[in-house]
Amino acid sequence: MTTTSATPEWAQLTMSPDECARERSRFRRHALKPIIGFLGPFLFLWTLFLAVPMGWATWLSFNEGGLVSDAKFVGFKNWTTFLNNDELRTAIKNTSVYVVVAITVVFGLGLILAALLNNNKKSQNFFKVALYFPLLIPPIMAGMIFFFLTHYDMGVINLLLQTAGQDRVNFLGANPNALMTIAGLEVWRGLGFWVLFYLAGLQSVPTDLIDAGKIDGARNTRRFLRISLPTLRPLMLFALVIALIFNFQLFDSVQALTKGGPTLGTTSIVWFIYKQLFTFQQSGVAYATSLALLLLVVALTIFAYGFLGHRKDGLK
Amino acid sequence: MLGFMAASVMVLGACGGTDSDDAATDDTAASDTGSSDTGSSDTGSSDKPFEGVTLKFGKAPHGEDEKDNWNKWLGEFTEQTGIKVELTQVPWDQLEALYTANFASDEPYDVTYQTSAHLTLFGEQGSFEDLTGRIAGEDFAVDRPNFPDGVINASVYNGKLYGLPFVVGTTAMFVNKDMFTSAGVNIPSSGDELIKAAKAIMKDQKAKGNKDVWGFYVPRTVADYGWYWNLSDVHNRNGDFLSADGKTATMDSDAVKGAAQYAADLICKEKVQPENGLYNREAAIELFKAGKLAMIQDEPSRVKTFKDEGLPFEWDIAMPVGYQGKATQFATTGHWTISAKSKNADAAWEFVKWLSSAEFNSTYNQRYGFVPARLDADASGGDEMLARNASWVAVWDGLRTSPKVNQLLDPYGQALEAAASCKTSVDDAFAKAQKQAAEILAG
Amino acid sequence: MAEVIIRQLTKSFGENTVVKSVSLKVADGEFLVLLGPSGCGKSTILRLIAGLEEATSGEILINGKIVNFVSPVNRNAAFVFQNYALYPHMSVRKNIAFPLATAGMPKPAIDEAVQDAARILELSDLLERLPSQLSGGQRQRVALARAIVRKPAVFLMDEPLSNLDAQLRQQTRLELMDLHRRLGITTIYVTHDQIEAMTMGQRIAILKDGELQQVAPPLEAYDQPANIFVARFMGAPPMNLIPVSVSGSEPTWSATTQGGSIDFDLKSVGITQAAIGAHMSESLQIGIRPEHLSLGAVGTGLSGKVRFIEPTGSDTFVTVQVGEKNVVVRCGVNETAKIGESVGLAVNPAKMHLFSADGWNLRTK
Ligand SMILES: Nc1ncnc2c1ncn2[C@@H]1O[C@H](COP(=O)(O)OP(=O)(O)O)[C@@H](O)[C@H]1O
Ligand SMILES: [Mg+2]
Hints:
The structure holds three protein chains of three kinds. Chain A has helices spanning 17-60, 77-83, 86-118, 124-136, 139-150, 156-163, 177-203, 207-215, 220-231, 233-247, 252-258, 269-279, 283-308; strands at 63-64, 72-73. Chain A is mainly α. Chain A folds into two domains: 16-60; 77-308, MetI-like (MetI-like fold), CATH 1.10.3720. The longest helix of chain A is centred in the N-terminal third of the chain and has 44 residues, at 17-60. The two termini of chain A are 45 Å apart. The model of chain A is unreliable at 312-316 (pLDDT under 50). Chain B folds into two domains: 26-169 and 332-395, Periplasmic binding protein-like II (D-Maltodextrin-Binding Protein, domain 2), CATH 3.40.190; 172-318, D-Maltodextrin-Binding Protein, domain 2, CATH 3.40.190. Helices cover 48% and strands 12% of the residues of chain B. Chain B has 18 helices and twelve strands. In chain B, the strands form three sheets. Chain B has a six-stranded mixed beta sheet. A four-stranded mixed beta sheet of chain B has the order 8-9-7-10. The termini of chain B are far apart. Residues 1-45 of chain B have low confidence and may be disordered. Chain C is of the alpha+beta class. The longest helix of chain C is centred in the middle third of the chain and has 18 residues, at 166-183. At the A-B interface, helix 11 and helix 12 of A face helix 4, helix 12 and helix 17 of B. The structure holds adenosine-5'-diphosphate and magnesium ion. Magnesium ion is lined by residues 42-43, 158 of chain C.
């Protein structure tokens, strides 16, 4: 390197380029240390609780047995078995219908209730508790309540319907009632969570924006639809992904109430997996299906972010 | 009781030999205790070779009070033998999942209760010890003759006995006697009679202004294990869903289809049973208790519950109806198993012998109403209904056993539910079931 | 075009009364600045006028009509928020059009109005951008465009310049004044910056703890502050205050401090004989702005010692300790005083104020 005559003696560089590069990499390594320190435990746990079981599951999906008994390699047999399974096809259909219905209803109701509560600060606390209550009821008691609500002859709902001169409803014994009943039950259980979630979201919408809306003449509904809701979009996207992941795993109420019936009308993907894994001890088929479900949910998540999240609107 | 004492003495002789497989740390202590106890056992001063051993015990409950009862019963066992037992109640609806996890671990329950369907399922995967040798041993010689060969053999698969039968189930038909008297009909013993009686009762009740009364109920849905309640009728028709060797499915046989057709006719054609799925098992029990149902098939454990609750009408139990003069009883068998991985297998066998003793069997079943698997136990406790129920074991015909039995019962139950839902013909439903079953057996 | 009147306006949040019986009259087309330190209730008053808060008591009139129970949009007042409150998911065009679309104006008319507003505020090239893609000054202009687009009767601006850097603030100040000149819309402008207030306001309303202190044109508020609060709030550095005891009688009075005494006659300081008679025995203070003091040789006026010297380029401020008080003097840039030097302070008695013990100016207008 040549120096201009204007550079005085004391301003000459003293480090050689090599030396500089060496020092730079040393400095960067040093800066990386704490990051590795933080990430290390996470990577370890990730390996232990995610990567290893996933690898194991993948391996078992090419085997018979492997849980209680020894594993026996069978190639792609489990994968072809589950791909050709009519029941699984029904399960995918049921689960998809359920996911669409449950998420639409729970998000719709959740948002509306959150909006109403947001405008009504006084009764907020009461409703927060009331809506969250279903999550706090022990499952056994919830089951009993449900039984006495839905009994065809003696259930409260049907008695009310009869008094009102309406036809009684067969909640769990017919299709598509059973799937809708289960969706209703899951909505009832999940509603409180989503109301609180959206209420928190609505309360984080800057008050200035709401005030600007008032000044600009937007009434409640329009303010909600045109100002609050768009502001909540990133949050809703996240909620949608969470709800997708969560609801694709429909299982509890199927096991408790219908065992997949009537005539497979409530057979869900996870119920199918459960039957294969435990009732039939067909772990290979179960793992193959689980992995496929995982891929499905990952694909949906990517789709959700790609499709719905793709708009440069400055809401990062 | 004498038999039990003798057996205890005899197990000591075998103790040193069988224990040698056990973990080295336990080994010396166990054989030391064993030899010293053998020496003193003749004097009768100490008869507790497994003193200090703790067994893990897994069982699904037959009643809400079971846990309290076990606390009492296990206390007695510990007092007698010095063996401690830790009970884990395994809920029925999580049973398969929890046992799978447990048997896959290194320290499974030493002793469990298993029904027919699960006995072979887990047994064939190596979870349970084959008890064939144990029940042939000298320490069981006094007890063995009390177990009918038919009951024992029904639990054998591939020459292996994975559990010692404890109870055989039965199903009873609970009848509202007031309704029968009112309509002037007798309790039916054949399928045709059942339809006639049901219709007569429904007509009579309607005439008396009691609307919404049904003649008959038995679960036909997958959710309430429809296959379980239907297999006796298949057996009545001299058939089964699986060949005796467990290798061929016979879901499209006349016996299976005939029983399914009868089940469907009760609902779809004769309309004496409510539309399938309108009432599940518990909902129908509520109907019966409310005087809105003339006959309901259920487990005899309800006898005690109904008596305790005091139903507001006269009622009785009857043998479920037969077909062309043949009436059989169906239910699964309940067994005591010893885990293959148990580190205290001999103490576990001691416990299993105690559990299957005539005395304990009587105690247990006087409460839960099952039929003991051994002839010298009395489960009735003087109760006439339970005694009658117990006598039905003479015509008992159990579940064909196979490690794939759960898988096979699924299409069977689905087909039955489809037919009973009046939308699919029995032929179509069971042709499909047969095809699925064949695939399962081939796979 | 509208006149805004507020009568005995009071607002409490629970126990806390933040606006205390404020009465104010803003003439049609006037530019009134609401000035006061942070937390004194300026925004609250503005929000009350806009209808974003409900008054606890008192009346608000726009164009002669009581609007207390009229919804914000029907008050026909546009609000410009401190942080602009632009809708982040809408383009500049949609932001500006929003109030019109809400009002149900037909699309061609909206387009035209948006074009007009955009032209006035030089936003025509930015219409398709999102707020996040604009600079602070541009966002400010979008907020203004959204405010003017529906031709409001009143402009309410809540510290609209405080998020801009100093240079941009000054430029936008001029633009705002120009806008007001062109549109002539009655404007109430909230700020805590006395320079903004002085330069922009046709009148300034000064507020302290929810109470109105003085309403006056800028120079009047500066020259004849109603009380110590106004006197100190207007002007930088603030007016000097020196405790005095007053003695004498017509025609010669003198105010004695620790650094000497100042002779004055009542006429030149604008005080009546009755007023001074009533307050003479109190602990009074004189107030004198730095520019009305000058340094001189020891012996002229008050005497003290130089403590600090702060050249700013255009002026040099010299702090002199008089007794226990520091007194700031505005001097020319060529001032030669040295720190520690003893100096004399010449006071222009005609520019002097005399404040009573409770802080009110004894001067009568
Ligand atoms: N919504 C509110 N609830 C309770 N207190 C409030 C509310 N808004 C303003 N205040 C209080 O009122 C006082 C005046 O606030 P504000 O009008 O915003 O002051 P400024 O705009 O002059 O800084 C402050 O003490 C503030 O804490
Ligand atoms: Mg403010």
